[in-house]
Amino acid sequence: MTTPPLPAAAPVDRLVPSWFASIEVGVGDGTSADAIGLPVAQGEPVPADLDTDLDALARAGFTPTVGSALPEPRRDGPALVAVGVGELGELTATSVRDAAAAFARSVPRDAALAMHVPTADGVTAQSAAAAIVEGVLLSRHRFDLRSQAQPKDPVALTALTLIAPEGAADAVADGAARGHTLARAALVSRDLATCPGSLLSADAMARVAAELGSAVGLSVEVTDLDGLVELGCGGLLGVNRGSEQPPRMITMRYTPEGEVAGRLGLVGKGITYDSGGISLKPGDESHSQMKNDMTGAGAILAAMLALPALGVRAQVSAWLMCTDNMPSGSAMQLGDVLTTRGGTTVEVLNTDAEGRLVMSDGLVLAVEAGCDAIVDIATLTGACLRTFGTEVAGVMGNDPGVVDAVRAAGDAADEPVWELPLIRSYRRQLDSDVADIKNIGGPNAGAITAALFLEHFVAGKPWAHIDIAGTAQAGAVDAWTNAGPTGFGARLLCELATSFGR
């Protein structure tokens, strides 16, 4: 029998179309837009341009709460949209982002949008502008491989104009630029996570990183199979044994000009498709979602692309550990013992606990590189999904300062995380009779024992682990999040890198 050839390599612009999309974002009067959003606050006068009042809007089904939007078509000029923002005293960047998403979803057939920027004591014009851009662009994102568009599909955005309050044009322009950068990172992360595994192999991830990273001034190094053997990356090599696709380790480095505020290391799980290996997953919907098991690495890749535009003052290095996890005659078997980078031996008792294996090598390399702190991110455990559901990620770590920095970054990005304890007595569940450590603990506290496994490889370096198994996939539309892969983590990591060392 002849083995069928591997799929032809897809061009990078097909893998991450959001990076190449042309959307003009700026400040203006909105007269060239198809639709203009006007914020309506509870207990405040309705903007004069709407030529109505709250009672009339209420009769049409509109309430001035966040998430409510009512378009008013006009014969001439752009449609006007009443956009609920809640009470001004409670206005935040998060509520502005959600309101902007409701506005963008209310006019799905309009390609050029504009929105007045609301301000209040709780949000500046700059942060509100950034939130509007994020809310609009993220809510209207699509990754589509269909040969023909459907009539009900939203049209592609071509322009977003922000209408600034008097005297705030410069602040709004700065905020719009930052929001565009953050949104673009999140969209690239979503694109990668939505790509089928047949398109987004480890090599394809490497091509994306190399092409786009070099375009923004990053240093990108791709380590192939022979190089991984030379480095002794037995965790990544072990998981890759069942695959026809070769593994890749992608090392990305950002170094700012001038004084460096600190050295941050990022390590990401890049399992481009996870069948479970010999410990095969059931053939249900969750199995079909396993193309998103590289969301950690995808979020890091996307965030790294944003660092130059954000003016990050820290030096940031990233290790993306990429392969698929497939069953075959050469696949890793239960009971195998792997030797990871640095010499630790690992007894494999579940081949579906593969993410921690590939990241063990990356964590050791981050320690060897002399990073001041290390943060890893991965779709790691179903236990974390069952603990927090789909809206909150888990975080664990050995250093309160690093954990707090991750939590603050999540709050700023509206990508929330919640800390779980590293219960030291659970570490004994990972003891092995034949190796230094097992790759899985007992039936309970799986998120914690997985983090304790990862901690073994950081050599006491300040470290935090983000488990995004629940937040990587959304079952339905919610504010600026679409159904499907969310790209969770890209904006969080941008915020973390921006604040690191300051």
Offer a quick outline of the entry:
With 502 residues, the chain is of the alpha/beta class. Helix 5 runs parallel beside helix 6. It contains 16 helices and 19 strands.
Layout of helices and strands, plus pairs?
Layout lengths: L11 H4 L1 H4 L3 E4 L7 E7 L12 H6 L9 E4 L6 E8 L6 H14 L5 E5 L8 H15 L19 E5 L5 H26 L7 H14 L3 E5 L1 H7 L2 H7 L7 E7 L8 E12 L10 H4 L6 H16 L4 E11 L11 E3 L5 E3 L7 H14 L4 E6 L3 H7 L4 E5 L2 H14 L3 E3 L17 E2 L7 H10 L7 E5 L5 E2 L9 E2 L4 H10 L3
Parallel strand pairs: 1-6, 2-4, 2-5, 5-6, 9-10, 9-13, 12-16, 13-17, 14-15
Antiparallel strand pairs: 3-4, 7-8, 8-10, 11-12, 14-17, 18-19
Descriptive account of the structure:
The chain is an alpha/beta fold and 502 residues long. The chain folds into 2 domains: 169 residues, Leucine Aminopeptidase, subunit E, domain 1, CATH 3.40.220.10; 303 residues, 3-Layer(aba) Sandwich (Aminopeptidase). The protein has 16 helices and 19 strands. The strands form 4 sheets. An 8-stranded mixed beta sheet has the order 7-8-10-9-13-17-14-15, sandwiched between helices. The chain has a 6-stranded mixed beta sheet with strand order 1-6-5-2-4-3, with helices on one face. Strands 11-12-16 form a 3-stranded mixed beta sheet. A hairpin with a 5-residue loop joins strand 11 and strand 12. Helix 4 runs parallel beside helix 5 and helix 11 crosses helix 16. The mean pLDDT is 95.
